[in-house]
Amino acid sequence: MATFDFSEKLPFGEMFLVRSSEIEGRIDPLYYQTIHNFIFAKQKKYTVSKMVDCIDMQRGRFGHRPRNDPKLYGGDYPFIQTGDIVKASQNAGKITYSQTLNKLGLKTSRLQTEKAVILTIAANIGDTAILDYPACYPDSLIALTPKSDDLRLEYINIYFKFIKSFLEDLAPQAAQKNINYQQLAPVPIVIPPLAVQDEIIRIYENALLARNSKQKQAQTLLTSINDYLLGELGITLPETDNSLNSRIFTVQMSEVGGGAFDPFTQFNKHYRIEGGKYPNERLDNIAFLQKGQSITSDDIVSGDYPVIAGGQSSPYSHNVCNHKGNVITVSASGAYSGYVWYHDYSIFASDCTVIFSKDENKLITEFLAEVLKVKQQEIYLLQKGAGQPHVYPNDLAKLNIPLPDKPTQQKIIAHIQAIKAQATALQAEAEQLLSQAKAEIEQMILGGAQ
User: Which of 108, 164, 248, 338 could cross-link 391 (Cys pair, CB 3.0–4.6 Å)?
Assistant: First the structure.
């Protein structure tokens, strides 16, 4: 083979050799550079095998169009999809499903009966979870099983947690990234001895158990906030009765009083969280309610201020803000319209209603936020519209807010802040436990100390 004299002026890794026998269906240099520089493939202690040689790959199938044809669904066969795997991967939990296929749907899909690692290969790339029950799956997923007894299924699942970003880099640059058999085939798989694989599995599973325990403790604390607040306000939650007798009722015309005439509004008003041992005030008497400012994606200039719109998280950030913090937002439209969110930082309020106290000496905005969070379900019931539900400021204005004196509000806020701080500490400990385990496992895969 001819020798090549690479210039010393070239940055390391920008020029490298690939044998023609190693090129399988793709010749762009970035793809092979990614594989060439893969850190796990460089370790020398354990066997490194190509994925195609040690793992059997079965891509899912779903050929019928339209995909949402109702005649395919509602049967005995669980149908898992990309979102189910992403959720299970992020939570390190069991794969759950929300749809089933019937016999007609089964004919257009693939049924996985053997226990397998399921890998996402479209849009969300590289998420994995173990499927331990028979289920159908579409072509955006691949089922992975070891080809020999030298490889544990659980180890494959853990290994892919470490190479997710590597797989994302392998995907061709496109509007929606995806990878296929050909791109996965040469992926290096480090295969330690079974005893090492078993130790890796033990460390990872123990760390998950410890993390989940901490997270459960944190969630228990956060859940206790509502009970604490209701107890301090002297409010007893109304019991919901969905029996037929309770759903048939009469309302005096004088009680409608220019409000909504639909039965849902009249029924739900009996389940409002209000009253208690303190006087109540209408929200619009004690707080400002302002509509957010419309903004399109074309208007966005990336910056430091989260844009608060119709969801439960910020979709993007902007370079200017329209509120300086200490405000509450209630999502105005979409599936999560009515979602209550307190911000102690500057934001750009868009598709939402912004709420803040008219007089902090009478009503502390942070206290109001906790009351509105307790009333979250009540606020969701204010949604109007079928295709695109909305929660309107005029309906929020009518909410009754318990109003204790300022020292009581301050005491309640301090107690809730303490609970949240304790929960945050537990959540941080939970993630630290898993991070430490991952660091230890990475060194083991690289052939380090055990």
Answer: 338
